[in-house]
Each structure stands twice: as C-alpha cells, then as structure tokens.
Amino acid sequence: MGFIVEEEEEEESNDVVMEPPPNFSMVEEGIYRSSFPQPCNFAFLKTLNLRSIIYLCPEPYPEENLEFLRSHNIQLFQFGIEGKTEPSVAILKDAIRRALKILIDVRNHPVLIHCKRGKHRTGSLVGCLRKLQNWCLSSVFEEYQHFAGLKSRTADLRFIETFEIICLRQCLHSIIYQYQGYGSKKRRLLYREETVQNPEITSI
Q1: DSSP SS3 for 162
Q2: How would you classify the pairing of strands 175-179 and 75-78?
Q3: What is the three-class DSSP state of 151?
Q4: Residue-level pLDDT at 174
Q5: CB of 83 within 8 A of CB of 119?
Q6: Which of 79, 30, 77, 24 is nearest to 56 (CA)?
Q7: Which tens digits make up the pLDDT trace of 169-200?
Q8: Among the four 25, 70, 150, 190, which has the fewest Cβ within 10 Å?
Q9: H or E stretch covering 78
C-alpha cells in the first residue's frame, strides 16, 4: 500500500510515493507499529513526526536508518530480543518491562515500535500494553493473531497471558490513564512522576 503526493512546480509535476512499512498500523494516538523500515519507507515515516523508535532486535541498526534518525532528531531505544531462538522468560520479561516504560511516556511520542517483521516481538510488546489498558485477553489475542497471521506463536500468547501487570505497575511507580483532546476516545498514557529512570538508549 502506498500514498501518492503530487507536488506541482512551475513547469513540471512530480509524484512522491509514500510507502508505509509492511504491517504498519496505529496502536494508539502517538503510538505506531510496523516491520523493519526500509529506505523506501522514509518519506512516509517523515509524515509521522516521530520523536522515538523502539527497536526490538539485537542486530545493529543499519547506518542508512541511523542517518535518517539523526537528520530528523529521532531517538532510538533498542531492546535486543532474540527472534530465531526463544529467549528465557526472565530475559523477555525484563526487556518488555523496560520497553513499556519508554512506550508509555508521552515525552517519547510519537513513537514507532518495530522488530523485523512486526509480528512476534512487536506483537508481544503491544499485547502487554493492551493488558495494561485492561483489554480482555480474547481481544489481545485477536489483535496479536491479526498481525502474526499464520506465523502466530503459542509461546508469545502464553507470555502475554502470564505477564504480570501488578509487578509492572510497581516497577513504574504507578501508571495513570488520562483522556485528552477533543473526544473521549483520545487516550494518553502518562507517568505520575516527573522523571524517568535512565532508559537504555542507543547512541546515534
């Protein structure tokens, strides 16, 4: 899927195609998800006015992507979760908790979450966010399976189901929800505290 923007000049007209990354979608206002962005997606990402990217793979970020982030003042937060081999539950829980702490801080919004395909690691993080938002488990699973398709993993669903929200709330020193904007459906997630404990930031 792509979007075409027509730019008219004095004697010629150029079509700029803005192509979102595969599996792109809005999660919440100011929160997006997708597969790994390619250079052909940069024009589209520019329209999102991103402030941050949450990257869930252990591999180094490509230099071309880093240059795009630098040129648009986008902060990269990397949480290296293995994709081919199943990580230990303890390691996965720790990475998801730390990623959620970055994700719900509106000072990092607009933010894009992505892994390689935008299915399993991204789906697990979004699934845990949905639990934090008090979604029923069947709706959380339905959303995960929508993006994972035939590649849905039972281990991911089990992890989301057993992820402890109470423990997360203790870690984050109490999370509150506040509705803002022109309609009651515009939900924003905020910290009660003013400061955030040193997040893991990848230097670019």
Answers
A1: helix
A2: unpaired
A3: helix
A4: 45
A5: no
A6: 79
A7: 655 544 444 434 434 444 455 444 434 344 45
A8: 150
A9: strand 75-78
Helix, strand and coil percent figures for the chain, each rounded to 5: 40, 20, 40
The pair of three-digit structure tokens given for residue 65, joined into one six-digit string: 């992507």
Question: 116: which 2 tokens?
Answer: 């390689």
| pLDDT at residue 73 greater than cutoff 90 | yes
Q: Which residue has the tokens 């979004």?
A: 126
- What 3-state class would DSSP assign to 141? helix
**Single-letter amino acid, residue 200:** E
pLDDT band at 139 (very low <50, low <70, confident <90, very high): very high
Is residue 171 part of the annotated active site? The answer reads no
For the cut 70, the answer to whether the pLDDT of residue 48 exceeds it is yes
Strand partners for 15: 6
Task: Give Cα 44 distance to the centre of its chain.
Answer: 16
DSSP annotation string for 26-68: EEETTEEEES---GGGHHHHHTTT-SEEEE--SSPPPHHHHHH
Length of the chain: 204
Burial 62-95 (b: 16+ CB within 10 A, else e): eeebbebbeeeebbbbbbbbebeeebeeeebbeb
**DSSP-based three-state secondary structure for 112:** strand
